[in-house]
Write a structure and sequence with these properties.
By secondary structure, chain A is of the alpha+beta class. Chain A contains 20 helices and 29 strands. In chain A, the strands form seven sheets. Chain A has a seven-stranded mixed sheet with strand order 11-12-9-19-16-17-18, with helices on both faces. In chain A, strands 14-22-21-20-15-29 form a six-stranded mixed sheet, with helices on both faces. In chain A, β26 and β27 form a beta hairpin. Chain B is built from five helices and five strands, in the order ββαβββαααα. Chain B has two domains: about 80 residues, Beta-grasp domain (Ubiquitin-like (UB roll)), CATH 3.10.20; about 60 residues, Orthogonal Bundle (DNA polymerase, domain 1). The mean pLDDT of chain B is about 95. Chain B is globular and about 45 Å long. By secondary structure, chain B is α+β, with helices and mostly antiparallel strands. Classes of the chains: A alpha+beta (about 750), B alpha+beta (about 160). The structure holds FE2/S2 (inorganic) cluster (2 copies).
Chain lengths: ~750, ~160
Amino acid sequence: MSRPGFNPDPGLLELVEYAQGARANSFALARLDRRRFLQLTGAVGGGLMLGLQLGGRSALASQAADADADSFEPGVYLKIAGGEIVIYAPNPEVGQGVKTSLPMLVAEELDAAWTDVRVEQSPIDAERYGRQFAGGSRSIPDRWEGLRQAGASARAMLIAAAAKRWGVPAPECETAESRVTHPASGRSASYFELAAEAARQPLPSPDSLRLKGRGEYRLLGRRLTGVDNRALVTGERLFGIDQTLPEMAHAAYQKGPATGAVPRGANLEEIKRLPGVLDAFVLEGNGNVSELMPGVAIVARDTWSAFRAKAALEIDWDESGAARDSWADASARAAELARSEGGETLADRGDVAAALDAAETRLEAFYQYHFVSHAQLEPQNCTAWVRGGEADLWAPTQTPGRGLKSVAKTLGLNPSRVRVHQTRAGAGFGRRLVNDFMCETAAISARVDRPVKLTWTREDDMSHDFYRAGGFHALQGGVDPNGRLSAWRDHIITFSHDGKRPVVGGHLSAKDFPGGLVSNHRLTRTLLPWHTPCGAWRAPGSNVFAFAVQSFLDELAAAAGRDPLDFLLEVLGEPRWFEPGNFWSLNTGRAAEVVRLAAREAGWGRSLPEGRGLGLAFWFSHAGHFAEVAEVSVSAGRKLRVHRVTVAGDVGPIVNRSGAENQVEGSVIDGLSTMFGQKVTHEAGRVEQPNFHRYPLLRMPQAPEVDVHFIESDYPPSGLGEPALPPLAPAVANAIFAASGLRVRTLPISEEGFTL
Amino acid sequence: MIVLTLNGRERRLEGLDPEMPLLWALRDHLDLVGAKFGCGIGQCGACTVMVDGRAVRSCVLPLKSAAGASVTTIEGLAEADGGLHPLQEAWIAEDVAQCGYCQAGQIMAAAALLDSNPAPSDAQIESAMAGNLCRCGTYLRVKKAIRRAAGGERT
Ligand code: FES
Ligand code: FES
């Protein structure tokens, strides 16, 4: 009876699962891959180019490439020539800092002077660079081995060249600041002097390389300013939206008011007569919401003419196959279902019913959170030039490789005829994992046969997102007569596009907190139909589960008269690693350490004035263990002031300390911004919040101080784009309770009358 | 024809719709892409430029209203000899940016503030900067960079 939803392609779910470590992958696997690295080397213009790549091309092909120096594309990580060391950053930069931190890994092992380094964004080439994407906080863990190997290999070849030149044993040579020295004889040469000879040295086998230990780092752990910062503060052309091509036209694209609406007709003739308009036409789309949905395109001589004409469009929409989603209906239905058992059982450990009966303290609560939008500040845009069966695209995307394939499919071209050029992106937060805007631009450029830049309005962006899904948790918990957590029962009500699987971000599992930590645990799930596409939003799932779970844990502690810190540490229990060797599984030892550190640094337990309180929360996601303590005042009329948030995290060694702290500060502010007033509601499939006047983002006067502490454990480093975000909402909610006795169970909290 | 002073140079703009917001004239016709489009309704500040010394949202300022005015964009903030403005230096020193998209607007709002109030208090910084959203949450560093620039000598 119900229409199928507009499923983002299955690749999105797969990507999110990969990003969260749910798919088979780990550092152990990364090590295996390393042995399959192919190496490419050779002299180019008297310099040394060297790259290590993941396996995938046959040895024969690589030899052929080596034999012909001309075939050497710049598809490598490193080039030493002309007095500079160029390092190619392989992954998209969307504000997570990898255009600086990834090259630091190469430079560290190379012993390059950072002032000699110039960073360039690498081309998109899966053969050479493997998965090039920005998502799941994966850039650092996925590139940790390979990029350090690249730097170490080049260093070994430079040493070999110097040793040969000087007739000394290579092991007697040392490197630092882009120089090889031979202390015994006092000889010294710069990498630039040695580059041409180094290119003729045999490649070291990966097993012969010894990577530095923690104590030997010269660059890692330092505070470096971002490599694009000078260009950013002088307004250079860095972003997708800044691209221009000769003879370029500017386009706008109007899609339906509800996803899947199809234009029956439009006032195209009138639109074509408007000033500056070059063309206007209907695109039928290919039925794939991740690629090209139906709409009306306007092509004009500038953006303003395109936008103005778009505002004058009168389109007769056929909504017979369109989404009719209603948040009001869905939330009413969820409230009805709350007390039911839940269709699917995802975890059933011990005997929850008996444990609840035997509990000394027993609580029930219903938590809910709304849909939200990504609202990255740079609206979707792309510049494309499709001609003669080929396509070039300049796109701010988190998944350039997937974008390339989507465009090829939309245009019916062989992917080898499509090139994607990376630009900086004005943030992503998961929205740019999907490349609908690339496909639209390609289709418009193909139709008008000239270069085109498509710019979405903010209204387009808010109305055609892949939203973070809302959801509901009916929770029950029990605390035994000894004051210990003894039972946890969660019925999650989330959404589904196909009636079978939850949408991205609805996948709470038996492994999520407190799975494995409480002896009686039952988790069931109900799926409500939803047609408007949902997608990955910074720390998918975790960004909302943490709120419900860590708030309810705090409720149980309070009801049982326990200190929330003691109660949480008791639940975490003895130090143990659930799946030893898998960094995407919880390590309760690392967890307890960050909880203790955050509590200590925040002054947990100190006395505070009336109306002021501390709240604590912990969450593990994306291989990162994070605890946060918020200090909040609540005054009359539910007016809040979040004074300070103390964060303790363990993501292994820190690569760029400035960038790392920036990610954590940003996660706290993003978390507060989102929990405070952001919601997207749909009625009749239409979004009710078209622009920022209806969708408040946190502003400077509301921002708390953020105090960041890292435990730099000896585990390999993991990423920081996401894991600091999830604990923020429950830490603030628990602080509101500590300050005022008011318990927050709905996001955004403005729904419960709070103002900031 | 609309005449204005843009980054110290007189410019005569012909054939442009006087209703066109200054932002789009800058970005599409004057090859100055530093000011960014974020919302188009004066809510985010990504498009902030200085008009006669005041921070203005160029996405809602019709070109005709800028006629005769002196407009400074992020591209015109540095000295003619390429020396950076103290705010630009401070921004690099504090490593303010994440994605960087809001940053030109933030810097222009801060420049207008320091021009009128060279030693602002924290509260004055917060109120002057409240119109500039940073989706990535770099507010603490924006504040630090303004303090640093205000404390430093202007060369
Ligand atoms: S684009 Fe001008 S205020 Fe947002
Ligand atoms: S740095 Fe991304 S919006 Fe401010």
